[in-house]
Amino acid sequence: xxxxxxxxxxxxxxxxxxxxxxxxxxxxxxxxxxxxxxxxxxxxxxxxxxxxxxxxxxxxxxxxxxxxxxxxxxxxxxxxxxxxxxxxxxxxxxxxxxxxxxxxxxxxxxxxxxxxxxxxxxxxxxxxxxxxxxxxxxxxxxxxxxxxxxxxxxxxxxxxxxxxxxxxxxxxxxxxxxxxxxxxxxxxxxxxxxxxxxxxxxxxxxxxxxxxxxxxxxxxxxxxxxxxxxxxxxxxxxxxxxx
Length: 243
Ligand code: BTN
Description:
Layout: E1 3-9, H1 12-21, E2 29-35, E3 53-60, H2 70-89, E4 94-96, E5 100-103, E6 106-117, E7 124-134, H3 144-149, H4 163-176, H5 183-193, E8 200-205, E9 208-217, E10 223-227, E11 232-235, E12 240-242
Parallel strand pairs: 1-2
Antiparallel strand pairs: 2-3, 3-7, 4-5, 5-6, 6-7, 8-9, 8-12, 9-10, 10-11
Helix pairs in contact: 2-4, 2-5
């Protein structure tokens, strides 16, 4: 596999998308020490300070993977990344639907999946899986807004892990774990790690937000929610807030 390393880059997802469009093979990885224009979901920015995190984007050709739906690939990434962090650090990581990883009630990792579909065949040509991990990021480097929500796996003065080892293990696991993980097993693991299952949450739909209870997460990664009037519904995309 090719690993392309940058000390500083605007966004590893942006670079990986360019490379994928130029024909880069499955498993090509772009990694950076720092991003100056890291992107999150909904066009938000992802603060990516120097040397304390890992910012990486993996090019996936879906025919090489057991699953090819972007939503499944996102759930897969959340499960694999949280497993790897748990194995290497011994810390317990939770998944907040859809794809944020939490430690100690703070977000320590965001995942952004971007896919391009071939117009003629309707098949997904490639998926860029972007992973941003705060490893030993002091919260003093985050903006006031991000500081409220973001955390880091290790405290500033705690002994951290080798970032190269983390990247290598993540790459290896992301490229191989799917071979032994059916969608049913994957979603079972996802649910075990979920921090929203059986919780009351606020969901945001347009300008409105509603209090609901999360009853289940189906194999497509959709939330099964129960409204306050007792109706069950599916919720497939949007923001939720744990209350
Ligand atoms: C989110 O929390 O909304 C997703 C954040 C994804 C951040 C990663 S960092 C590496 C890759 N490059 C980007 O510009 N974004 C992703």
